[in-house]
Every structure is written in structure tokens, then in C-alpha cells.
Specification:
The complex is a heterotrimer. Chain A is an alpha/beta fold. Chain A contains ten helices and ten strands. Chain A has helices spanning 43-50, 73-79, 96-103, 110-123, 125-129, 140-152, 170-185, 197-203, 221-225, 228-234, and strands at residues 5-14, 17-27, 32-37, 58-63, 66-67, 81-84, 158-162, 189-194, 206-211, 214-220. In chain A, helix 3 (96-103) packs parallel to helix 6. The mean pLDDT of chain A is 93. Chain B has 13 helices and 14 strands. In chain B, the strands form three sheets. In chain B, strands 7-6-8-9-10-13-14 form a seven-stranded mixed β-sheet, with helices on both faces. In chain B, strand 11 and strand 12 form a beta hairpin. The N and C termini of chain B lie far apart (71 Å). Helices cover 70% and strands 3% of the residues of chain C. Chain C is globular and about 60 Å long. The longest helix of chain C is centred in the first third of the chain and has 29 residues, at 4-32. Residues 305-309 of chain C have low confidence and may be disordered. By secondary structure, chain C is mainly alpha-helical. Classes of the chains: A alpha/beta, B alpha/beta, C mainly alpha. Chains in contact: A-C, B-C. Chains B and C meet through helix 1, strand 7, helix 8, helix 9 and helix 10 of B and helix 1, helix 4, strand 1, helix 9 and helix 10 of C. Bound molecules: adenosine-5'-diphosphate (ADP) and magnesium ion. The site of magnesium ion has 4 residues of chain A, from helix 1. Chain A: Belongs to the ABC transporter superfamily. Chain A: Residues 5-237 form the ABC transporter domain. Chain A: GO terms for molecular function: ATP binding.
């Protein structure tokens, strides 16, 4: 059986500079896969290419059996790939409710949408309390919750999260990580990009370490968490 | 890829725009060439070109085309009658779009063209100011059939009586605003019995000059100036002005400017229920004014230089030629003066050839000799007697007041006016 | 000062025309940060489209029957030109330097003006436009022409319809999302190219409505009316806060009223006699713009740029 997402020798460039230099990995349905690596390694570039915002210069992406490389972003969403971007990018002048509704932009089942919206409020009660408030007034952590909730509203087969813990207080970070654990328990397939390697590796089934555009190391989350090299470089241990 | 498509697109659009502009002028050129081809009797002919500069497209183009084809007919007549044996005259018409900068470029182009002996034009006083020096430096005759701003011949202090001729190469067959504004004021006060005039101008050399003279003369006669205002050329909404006029209880509106604005002003004025006549100068004496303003134009007045070309027996052939050739534009206002201006040049060429054993001197000499020859002009043209005073102004100081009656300009008073 | 109500009304009428045109600038700018300088010509071609419809109706057709057809005809012309410009001129330049679409817009402007000038029969001079019968109507000391009533009604209807559309429809919300963050909007499944086309189309249609209103009000249209109207509407859009549709209408009204009052009353101020009158209206319009931008750089209803992600 083939994986839900297969990335094969993907290459992406900004002008003449190649930011992703031929990476390959796969995400099986039901798994949490993480990409870790230092700033500038090419993680965000990879995710933006998967969701169609960037066009690759080479390689193949197959999602749910369909090639993605020439599909425009809005059609990729329709195929079941959701992307919660780095820096959250909620719509600041729309309300929380409207942000969530936009997450369900392509869905027609209004009953299902209402149900999923309620589920998002259950997952993040603060969003429910402030549903009529402009999203720009939320704190950073709350905005991250909204971004995740919004991505879930499309009922994705695969949820891509780009640095959900970036810039958050330790408490907030824990809460976000706990939510990811909860989503995994519900069976959501997740591709997680994180700088907080400790947290990411401890909940990932599969992990890949990126360095200047290539995948340097792959393995189960558990294995990499105990890899000496990884511990030294990414977990700050001597 | 991105850059290439940008380049292609921008150039396509730019070329598109240019082509369209070019089309506009090319079609005019074709017409003038077609009109010029009716001559050439002998094979040893010298060709002498008379330049024309006028707005041939855009604002004022109806009147501008009247100038171009007025000259064309004079040239065709001269060629057909072999008025200057051994010389075939041709017309080279350039479009100044009523823009001073374009006029100046055209003047430079005409001066640079070694077959051009003199130029007729421009239509607009403002454009003339930018061209006079170019012709003066080249010692080349320029005769305007329509410039009416006194400054052009008599210098900027003419109003204080300190008249100085600035350019001895500049002549005109039309008389000046100094007379038009006063003639209008005289008619408004004494004939129409108007006592309260609201005076508006478009801030241009021509319009402001005209309005200023009207104002001075009208109040000098004992009339009241109910208010004054200025507008911008290209404006379309005059509601503020209309409200002011209405509130001033003026019994007439005098407008110094062109028909492009006055046709809108009169329409908005009448629509607001202010049924007072709008009076202006020759800048609005055009059929376009009536066509666009429609019923609102009824009863409006305009002064124009000279006597109506349609009432002149001498101009009968001119008018029938103009009509039968199907030339575009309005000949009514300046067509006759353009014809006479071109004739002055043609007769001047004959005079210098007569004095030079029937040969045309080298162009630079011919041009400078023509300045003296034109200054000495003395003949009966189709629009009246043609001769010039010491400033280059016409000695033919006839003016006419026209009024819109049943959808057409009808002459209501002609006369000679000397201030 | 008893002309004040009338002058305010004059400003209100011309201001709602500026506002209608300004919406096209502001919607397009809000979504693609592009100043479509050809928008004034889209307004002009809309008016000519409507005139062409009128001319081709059997003579004697009632203006009330003709008017809806003229709005449709003018609307089709303007929308096609606006959408065509987006698709073939601006879209290929979307990632090019800012100057490229600007130059393109100027080229397009010239081309449209020249096209009407050359190819519309009699297009090189003013063309008469049908006017609405009736009027002027008197409300207190204010005279209102039939054309002004059409203008005000059209502005209100357009504005309410647009506000309702943007606020309540799914596409309207997608439009807001695209304006706030186009990349993320795509991640929601929004086809942002379609949204951009819709913005151009709405702006084009409103411009056509303004074009028809202008024809009815002044009884005439001309190939060069787009230049000044476009410039004023652009000023109105910036004044109101570019990107904000309510700002565009408010900016239009403020500009219209300011112009009208400035040209009516500034010359009454002792020492300012030379600076009043209609000839100075444009100057005061831009003085107003500069003053507002000094105090509120984002315009009257504009959001601070910092809010933009
Ligand atoms: N828009 C861009 N234009 C040019 N270079 C970019 C752009 N975005 C990212 N890069 C470069 O691509 C490389 C990978 O960046 P990114 O994918 O953001 O890394 P990460 O998410 O792993 O921190 C970096 O060297 C970065 O400087
Ligand atoms: Mg990143």
C-alpha cells in the first residue's frame, strides 16, 4: 500500500538559489511525521511547495494517489491537504468565527461545518468565548490555536503545521503540543515542522532532520531523540 | 519568463497607443496630400511648401481643420490659376493638439524643413507664444489667421499704451481681443441692454485676456459686474459656478474661453433654470458648440473677427469648394482668414521672384525677403482687405456678433471697432 | 451664505460620482496593491457603451425603458475592458516591479482614449447624451436635477449592494480574506485569481454606472472625461483610506463637498480673493488630501499598514 504523501527528490529554488535540493520522504495515513532542522534549512519552503504556493524546479509529489506539482493551491486544499502556515497568518480583521468559516471555504455541508466549528471550540474553548471578536486582537498563542482550528475546518486528510510553537510562552507551547497529541489520538495525519526538536521528536512516528536543503538523517522519533548527533546539534546537549 | 512577458506586454501596449495616435495624424496627412495633388502644369517647377500648424485632433480640432483646409484651398487655387509661374505650392500640416509644447516642436520641424517658406497658424494664442521665437530666429514668416491676444503683436504692456512689436516675422489676419472684448461689451450694454454681467474665464492667455477686456469696458460703460470666477479647462461639473451665478442675479454671463467648456456651462446654467444668455469670443463660435449644447445654446452670443465668411460675396467660391471637396472641420470662423493668410504668402513669393528675375532665391534668403514682402501686402482677400500695420496686425478691424437662432449661428451685428 | 445648502448639495452629487469611481480603485488596490490608472478610461468607455446602446434603440424609445438597457450595455463594455485588462495586461506583471503595471496602465489609458477618439462615430468632440425628463425639483432652497437624483440613488444602491455582498456572501468573505492575506487565502481553498477578476468586474461595473450618471447629469460625454474623473476618484480613494470601500465613498463625498465649498466661499475670505473660485478647486482638493494624509497617513477610514500581515 502506498503512503498518503510521497515526496520524491523534490527540488525548489528562489531564483537561482536552491533552497530544497532533492529531498524524499513519505507520510503514511495516521502517522505524525516531523521535519526538524535549524533556521533556513528549507522546512517552510518544503511545506509551501507541498501546498502549491511555490512551484518546484524538480521532483515529484504524490498525494492520495494524485500528482501535485502542477496543481494550484486552492485545488490542493480540495484534495484534503491543509496547511497552517508559519507565523500563523490568521485574517486579523475578520472575526474568529469568520476565520473558521474560511477554513471550511470549500465545504458545502453547513450542518457538518457547524459541528466541526463546535469541535474547534471544544478543542480551544477560548476561541468559542471570543468568536465574534476580530482575530487580530488575540494573543500569539490564541492565534496559533485559531490557525490550527482553521486548518482542521477543511476536514483534511493531512494537516501540515509549520512551527506551531514559534514565539509562544512555555505554557502555551505545552498546550499546543498537547493538542497535537490529542489530534494524533483522534487519528489525524500530521506533518509537523518544528524548531523545538525535543517536543517534536517525542511525539513523532517518523522524523527527518533537514540541513541546508537536504535530509541529513531519518528515523523514528524515538530513535532520533536518542541519536548522539541529534542530541548535540538540536537538543543543545554536550 | 516573468521579465520577458512584462517587456512584451508593455511594448505591445505602448506601440498600440502610439499606433492609434499615428493613425489619427496619418489620416489627416492623407487628406492634405490628396488635396494638394491638383496642380503641376510645367515640369521645371519649383515646389514651395507652406507649413500649417493647428490642432487637428482633440480639443478645438474642428476649428483647426478649418485652418488647414482654408490654406489648402488657397494653395490649390494658386496652383490652378498658375498665380506664380514656375512654382507649385504644397501644404504641410502639423497637429499641435492645442498644446504649446507640441506647437513649439512643430515650429522647429517647419523651420528645419528647407522646402518650407512660411507657416500659417497656430489657432491658439497660448500656442503662438511658444512658437514666435522659433520663427523669428529663422527669419521665417508666420501668419496666424486666428490669434487674437494683443500681446502677440504689441508686447505685454500694450494695455498701458506702450506698444512694442516683439517679432517682425509674426503677422495675423485676425483682429485682436482688445477689440473683441470691447465690441462684445458695447453690444451687451448698448444693444442688449444688459446691466449685470457675471464674468468667467478659463485662466488661459486667450480667455483671461478676453474676459479682462470685457469686464473693463462693460463697467466703463456703466454696467455692473455681478461676479467673477475662473474654471479649469477639462472640467465637466460647473454646479458650483451655476449656483453662484444664479445667486448673483446677473442678467448675462460673459465667458472667456473655448467651446469645450462653454457648451457644458450653458447647458448646466439653463438646466438650473437660469435663463440668461452666455456670451463669448470667437473661441466658442463653432458649430460644435450648438451641436453639443443643443437647446441650451439658443440665444447665446459670440463675437468673431471679421464679417461672416458666408455673407461675403468674395468668399462664395471658397465655400463651395470647401463643401464640394468634403473637407472636415469648421471653415466659418477662420477659413477665410486662413485663405487670405496663405494668399499673402503666395503673393509675397511672387513679389520676391519678380524682384529676382523670376527665380526663387535660396531658401534662407527667400524666407527673409518674404518677411518684407508680407509686411507690404496690400490686396483684397476673400474676408476683406489684407494689409498689416507696424505691429503685424491686420488693418481690417471688422467684427461681428453672432447669436444662436433656431440652432444655428446667425450674424446680428457687424461693424468696425477701434476701441 | 444662503447658497450654502445648494453648494453642499452640488458637492454631494459630484462627490457620489467620485465615490462610485473610487470604489474601483480601492477594491483593486485592496486586493492586489495595484493602482489601476486606466480606471478613469473604464468609466469613460462605460458611458460610451451606454450611449451606443441608446443610439441603436428605435428613436422615440422612452428613456425609462432605455436606461436599464444602457446600464447593462455600458456595464458590459466596462466590465469586459476591466477584466480584459486584468487578465492580459496586469496578471502577467503581477510579480514584476511595481513600475511595470503602472506604465502598462498609462499605456492602456492612452489606447482606450485614442480608440474612442478615432473609432466612436463623432468621438473626437463632445457627444450628446440623453437626459432624464423632469426637474429641477426644489427642496427648500436647493434645486435638484433629475440626473442628480439618479446619481444619488445609484450611489446608494451600489454601496448598499456592495456592502451586503462583501459582508454576507461567501465570495465577499473570500474577497476580504484575499485582501488581508492572499497566500493564506489560497490555503483556504480560495481561487484568488477569480477573486481578483471579481474585484475588477465590480469596479468596472460601478465605473459604468458612474459613466451613465455623468452622461445623464451633464447631457454629454467626451473621450477625455476619464482623465480628470479618474484623478479625482483616485484622490478620493486615498483620502478615504485606499483599500476600504466605505472609505472610497466617504472620500468621494468629502472631496466633492470640499471642492464645492472651496470654490464657492474661499474668495469671500478677506485676503483670499485670488485663491477662490472654480479655477482653484483642484488645488484645494489636493491641499485637503495633503492635510488629511499628514494627520492620518492611512486616510480617513484606512487601517494602519502595521495591521497588514
Ligand atoms: N522568499 C524567499 N526568497 C528568497 N529566498 C528565500 C525565501 N524564503 C526563504 N528563502 C531562503 O530559502 C532557504 C530556506 O528557507 P526556509 O524554507 O524558510 O527555511 P526554514 O523554514 O527551514 O527555516 C533559506 O536560505 C532562506 O533564506
Ligand atoms: Mg520556517
Amino acid at each position: 500500500m502506498s503512503a498518503l504523501l510521497e515526496v520524491d527528490n523534490l527540488r525548489v529554488a528562489y531564483g537561482k538559489i536552491e533552497a530544497v535540493k532533492g529531498i524524499s520522504f513519505a507520510v503514511e495515513a495516521g502517522q505524525v511525521v516531523t521535519l526538524i532542522g535549524t533556521n533556513g534549512a528549507g522546512k517552510t519552503t518544503t511545506l509551501r511547495t507541498l501546498s502549491g504556493l511555490l512551484k518546484p524546479v524538480g521532483g515529484k509529489v504524490v498525494f492520495d494517489g494524485k500528482p501535485l506539482t502542477r496543481v494550484p493551491p486552492h485545488k490542493i486544499v480540495a484534495l484534503g491537504l491543509a496547511h497552517s502556515p508559519e507565523g500563523r497568518h490568521i485574517f486579523p480583521r475578520l472575526t474568529i468565527e469568520q476565520n473558521l468559516q474560511l477554513g471550511a471555504y470549500l465545504r458545502k455541508d453547513s450542518a457538518g461545518i457547524t459541528q466541526d466549528m463546535q469541535r474547534a471550540y471544544d478543542l480551544f474553548p477560548i476561541l468559542g468565548e471570543r468568536r465574534k471578536q476580530a482575530a487580530g486582537t488575540l494573543s500569539g498563542g490564541e492565534q496559533q490555536m485559531l490557525a490550527m482550528g482553521r486548518a482542521l475546518m477543511s476536514q483534511p486528510k493531512l494537516l501540515m503545521l509549520d512551527e506551531p510553537s514559534m514565539g509562544l510562552s512555555p505554557i502555551m507551547m505545552q498546550k499546543i503540543m498537547a493538542t497535537i497529541v490529542e489530534l494524533r489520538a483522534q487519528g489525524t495525519t500530521i506533518l509537523l515542522v518544528e524548531q523545538n526538536a525535543q517536543a517534536a521528536l517525542s511525539l513523532a512516528d517518523q522524523a527527518h532532520v533537514m540541513e541546508v536543503g537536504t535530509i541529513k538523517l531519518s528515523g523514528t522519533g524515538h530513535a532520533l531523540l536518542h541519536d548522539d548527533e541529534v542530541r548535540k546539534t538540536y537538543l543543545g546537549e554536550d | 519568463m516573468q521579465h520577458r512577458s512584462l517587456l512584451i506586454l508593455t511594448s505591445v501596449l505602448a506601440t498600440g497607443a502610439l499606433t492609434l495616435t499615428a493613425c489619427g495624424s496619418r489620416s489627416n496627412d492623407n487628406k492634405s496630400n490628396g488635396g494638394g495633388g491638383s496642380s503641376s502644369s510645367s515640369s521645371s517647377n519649383t515646389t514651395v511648401v507652406i507649413g500649417v500648424d493647428a490642432p487637428l485632433t482633440g480639443a478645438n480640432s474642428a476649428t483647426g481643420l478649418g485652418i488647414q483646409y482654408g490654406v489648402q484651398i488657397a494653395v490649390d487655387d494658386a496652383n490652378a490659376k498658375n498665380l506664380v509661374p514656375g512654382v507649385t505650392f504644397k501644404v504641410k500640416a502639423l497637429d499641435d493638439k492645442a498644446q504649446p509644447a507640441t506647437g513649439q516642436q512643430n515650429a522647429t520641424a517647419l523651420v528645419a524643413d528647407n522646402s518650407v517658406i512660411a507657416a500659417i497658424g497656430p489657432l491658439n494664442s497660448g500656442v503662438a507664444q511658444s512658437m514666435q521665437q522659433v520663427f523669428a530666429s529663422a527669419n521665417m514668416v508666420e501668419i496666424s489667421p486666428s490669434n487674437t491676444n494683443p500681446t502677440l503683436t504689441q508686447g505685454k504692456d500694450w494695455a498701458t499704451g506702450n506698444k512694442v512689436r516683439a517679432f517682425k516675422t509674426y503677422f495675423r489676419t485676425a483682429t485682436t481681443d482688445a477689440l473683441q472684448g470691447g465690441f462684445a461689451a458695447d453690444y451687451a450694454y448698448n444693444t442688449l441692454k444688459k446691466k449685470d454681467a457675471f464674468v468667467v474665464d478659463d485662466k488661459q492667455t486667450y480667455g483671461a485676456g478676453l474676459a479682462g477686456i470685457f469686464k473693463g469696458k462693460f463697467s466703463g460703460l456703466g454696467g455692473k459686474i455681478a461676479g467673477t470666477d475662473h474654471v479649469n479647462t477639462g472640467d465637466t461639473d460647473y454646479s458650483t459656478l451655476v449656483t453662484k451665478i444664479k445667486n448673483s442675479h446677473a442678467d448675462m454671463l460673459y465667458y472667456g474661453g473655448q467651446y469645450d467648456e462653454s457648451e457644458l456651462i450653458t447647458k448646466q446654467l439653463k438646466a438650473a433654470g437660469v435663463n440668461i444668455p452666455l456670451m463669448g469670443g470667437d473661441g466658442m463660435f463653432s458649430d460644435t458648440y450648438i451641436k453639443t449644447a443643443g437647446k441650451a445654446a439658443e440665444g447665446d452670443l459670440a463675437t468673431s473677427v471679421g464679417v461672416p465668411v458666408t455673407t461675403l460675396p468674395a468668399a462664395k467660391d471658397f465655400i463651395s469648394t470647401y463643401k464640394s471637396k468634403g473637407y472636415p472641420g469648421d471653415y466659418g470662423t477662420y477659413g477665410g482668414y486662413s485663405y487670405d493668410a496663405a494668399t499673402a504668402v503666395i503673393k509675397g513669393v511672387k513679389a520676391i521672384m519678380d524682384a529676382n528675375s523670376n527665380k526663387l532665391p535660396a531658401m534662407t534668403d527667400a524666407r527673409s525677403q518674404l518677411v518684407d514682402a508680407v509686411q507690404k501686402s496690400d490686396f483684397d482677400g476673400i474676408a476683406g482687405h489684407v494689409s498689416f500695420d507696424q505691429y503685424g496686425d491686420t488693418t481690417n478691424k471688422q467684427l461681428t456678433v453672432y447669436q444662436v437662432k433656431s440652432g444655428a449661428w446667425a450674424p446680428v451685428k457687424s461693424g468696425t471697432y477701434n476701441g | 451664505m444662503h447658497t450654502l445648502p445648494q453648494q453642499l448639495a452640488n458637492g454631494l452629487f459630484i462627490g457620489s460620482m467620485y465615490g462610485l469611481i473610487a470604489i474601483g480603485y480601492t477594491m483593486v488596490y485592496g486586493i492586489v496593491q495595484l493602482i489601476n490608472f486606466a480606471h478613469g478610461e473604464i468609466y469613460m468607455t462605460g458611458a460610451f457603451g451606454a450611449l451606443a446602446v441608446y443610439t441603436n434603440l428605435p428613436s422615440g424609445t422612452s428613456i425609462w425603458l432605455a436606461l436599464p438597457l444602457m446600464l447593462i450595455g455600458g456595464g458590459i463594455v466596462s466590465v469586459l475592458i476591466a477584466v480584459g485588462a486584468e487578465r492580459f495586461a496586469y496578471r502577467p506583471l503581477r510579480n514584476a516591479p511595481r513600475l511595470a503595471p503602472l506604465i502598462t496602465a498609462i499605456g492602456l489609458s492612452l489606447a482606450l482614449q485614442q480608440a474612442v477618439f478615432l473609432w466612436y462615430p463623432g468621438g473626437d468632440n463632445g457627444k450628446r447624451f440623453p437626459q432624464l425628463p423632469g426637474g429641477p425639483y426644489h427642496i427648500g432652497s436647493v434645486d435638484i436635477q433629475s440626473g442628480d437624483i439618479f446619481l444619488i440613488v445609484a450611489a446608494v444602491v451600489c454601496m448598499v449592494a456592495l456592502a451586503t455582498f462583501v459582508r454576507t456572501s461567501r465570495t465577499g468573505r473570500a474577497m476580504q480574506a484575499t485582501a488581508q492575506d492572499p497566500d493564506t487565502a489560497q490555503l483556504m481553498g480560495i481561487d484568488t485569481n477569480r477573486i481578483i477578476v471579481i474585484a475588477f468586474a465590480i469596479g468596472g461595473f460601478f465605473a459604468a454606472v458612474a459613466g451613465v450618471a455623468s452622461g445623464l447629469k451633464y447631457g454629454q460625454v467626451k473621450f477625455d472625461i476619464g482623465f480628470q474623473a479618474g484623478l479625482k476618484a483616485f484622490t478620493a480613494a486615498v483620502l478615504g483610506g485606499i483599500g476600504n470601500i466605505y472609505g472610497a465613498m466617504l472620500g468621494g463625498l468629502v472631496l466633492g463637498i470640499a471642492e464645492s465649498c472651496a470654490s464657492a466661499y474661499i474668495s469671500n475670505i478677506p485676503g483670499m480673493e485670488q485663491l477662490g473660485g472654480g479655477g482653484w478647486a483642484n488645488v484645494w482638493a489636493f491641499v485637503l488630501l495633503i492635510v488629511v494624509l499628514l494627520v492620518r497617513p492611512q486616510g480617513l477610514l484606512g487601517e494602519r499598514v502595521a495591521d497588514r500581515a
